[in-house]
Specification:
Length: 206
């Protein structure tokens, strides 16, 4: 096992390189990590680089594809089992984003579906993705669900670091991430595994 120190900017370049190694086709990328690992920020940097390289990019947040509160919070707001398995609407994410962006798909993707703060649907229009377009899906607990993905980036944070960096009111989620690592093996699924205990000073494990 080799550990190579890197920077967020270099990581974004590495993601862009993985995508551009697949010319002339749509690419579905997951940037998966707990909130303190800042997957959204990394995906945003990669999106900027890919656009500069001439690729059409849509950044999709898994937080905009959660189930309605009546389903998501059926067993309370701090139920670990539901947080791990029941919050994300995987079916909608496949139907509205990942399948249309895949081989033979229509390319017609919906960037956002459900506003969980207001508990109602967004009114976004569908977006027509170019034939070589890129979907950057960001969020937590994405892997091990059978989602159709072409490139997987996993930002791994140890339980101790995650506990330190998680707000008190969200600390109940830490056991879900521990189970995720143990039961879903996201590190084993990753094409790019990032050690992110210190997100400003990440390292790549190969």
């Amino acid at each position: 096992m080799r550990i190579t120190p890197t920077t967020p900017a270099a990581l974004a370049e590495q993601i862009a390189d993985l995508v551009t190694a697949r010319p002339g086709q749509r690419v579905r990328v997951a940037v998966d990590g707990a909130p303190p690992t800042a997957p959204q920020a990394l995906a945003g940097e990669a999106a900027t680089l890919l656009r500069l390289r001439g690729r059409d990019v849509v950044v999709v947040s898994a937080a905009d594809f959660l189930r309605p509160a009546s389903v998501r919070l059926e067993y309370g707001r701090t139920d670990v089992d539901m947080f791990l398995d029941g919050w994300l609407d995987s079916g909608a994410l496949r139907r509205e984003v990942l399948d249309p962006a895949g081989p033979g798909g229509s390319g017609r993707v919906l960037p956002r579906l459900w506003n969980s703060d207001r508990d109602r649907a967004y009114r976004d229009d569908y977006r027509d993705l170019a034939d070589d377009g890129v979907v950057l899906l960001t969020g937590a607990l994405l892997l091990g669900r059978g989602l159709p993905l072409d490139i997987v980036v996993h930002l791994r944070m140890t339980p101790a670091a995650l506990t330190r960096r998680t707000d008190d009111q969200e600390r109940w989620t830490v056991p879900a991430f521990e189970r995720y690592d143990r039961e879903r093996d996201p590190a084993g699924e990753a094409d790019l595994l990032v050690l992110a205990d210190h997100p400003e000073r990440p390292a790549v494990r190969s």
